[in-house]
Design brief:
307 residues, alpha/beta, Rossmann fold, 2 domains, 7-stranded parallel β-sheet, binds nicotinamide-adenine-dinucleotide
């Protein structure tokens, strides 16, 4: 019977369906012990991971029987894709299955930050009643700059357009917006930095995108934008971001992803009550609904693959 290793959490019902077809080892904590994975991976034809399992060359060189890697999510930066190509291992992301969850996070965090909810909350619970000292604005007719106009970027544009935002998008690999009915202007980074009130990042982490939003990018921002990052932490330089906030170049930020995860104290110690920011533990794509969709999608793909 084909053997499958699952190293991170999966929806129970989807797991039960997998067990009808395959011999499964499911340990949702094993990703913390990479050496153990390296030592047992030779037994398995299939591997199912999220983003915490490092599927690097040390794992893959021992994966003598591995034919299929299912990714319960979409970012593939934890998997050595080149190595997989060379070894003819099929890598399957759960494309689009958590896009709605991420888009809802972007809309809700943008709304909260433009309305300065974290600051009002902090003042209110301290008994300050900051009704006139903190100024908030409406989202309608503001500019949203989307960097990375793929599956999630487009979904975000769709949600935000409905809320009255004007959309600019930058993606050098997309030159035709006709595959979307959304009213969006394909633009460049300069215009996005200069005009946007909100900037949302939806890039894969690659050598090109690492550290892409840095001191130089912040210095071009003219409209004190809010920055939302749900893609990968290393795409934004975290120190430059905090500096830009304190220098009043940006007016807030929501981070769901961090350079190091779990986020380390040298970063979170810089966040003090009263800042207009929202930090969350890489959950924008993880909701009850998306967990079912992502898991069912990968289960179907792996069953089809080995059929
Ligand atoms: P996608 O591949 O559909 O879209 C990414 C887009 O970025 C593509 O259109 C691509 O052309 C563009 N791009 C690549 N390099 C670029 C560059 N240098 N400059 C500008 N654009 C560039 O991926 P997606 O499904 O939209 O997901 C985007 C990212 O979001 C994923 O790679 C993943 O890291 C992250 N993500 C995070 C969560 C979460 O829970 N926080 C959930 C889902 C996805």
């Amino acid at each position: 019977m084909t053997k499958i290793l699952i190293t991170e959490f999966i929806n129970q019902n989807s797991l039960d369906n997998l067990k009808k077809k395959f011999q499964i080892k499911y340990d949702e904590k094993i990703f913390e012990d990479k050496l153990k994975i390296e030592n047992i991976i030779h037994n398995y034809e299939g591997l199912i991971v999220r983003n915490k399992t490092q599927v690097d060359s040390n794992v893959l060189k021992n994966a003598k029987k591995l034919k299929f890697i299912g990714r319960l999510g979409v970012g593939l930066d934890n998997i050595d894709i080149e190595f997989c190509k060379n070894k003819n291992i099929h890598v399957q992301p759960a494309t689009a299955m958590n896009a709605d969850s991420v888009a809802e996070y972007v809309v809700s965090s943008s709304m909260s930050l433009i309305k300065k909810i974290p600051m009002f909350h902090n003042g209110t619970i301290k008994g300050e009643w900051p009704r006139t000292t903190i100024k908030s604005t409406e989202i309608n007719q503001k500019f949203l700059g989307i960097i990375g106009f793929g599956t999630i970027g487009k979904k975000v544009a769709e949600y935000c357009e409905k809320n009255g935002l004007k959309i600019l998008a930058y993606d050098p690999y997309v030159n035709d917006k006709n595959d979307t009915a959304i009213d969006v202007k394909l633009s460049n980074l300069k215009e996005i930095y200069e005009k946007s009130d909100i900037i949302s990042i939806h890039l894969p982490l690659t050598n090109d995108t690492k550290n892409m939003i840095n001191k130089s990018s912040f210095s071009k921002m003219k409209n004190k934008p809010i920055i939302i990052n749900t893609s990968r932490g290393s795409i934004i330089n975290e120190n430059d971001l905090i500096k830009a906030y304190h220098e009043n170049i940006i007016s807030g930020f929501a981070l769901d992803v961090f350079e190091n995860e779990p986020v380390e104290s040298n970063f979170y110690n810089k966040i003090i009550p009263g800042m207009n920011c929202i930090l969350t533990p890489h959950i924008s794509g993880v909701t009850a609904e998306s967990n079912i969709r992502v898991s069912d999608f990968i289960v179907k793909k792996i069953i089809d693959f080995f059929n």
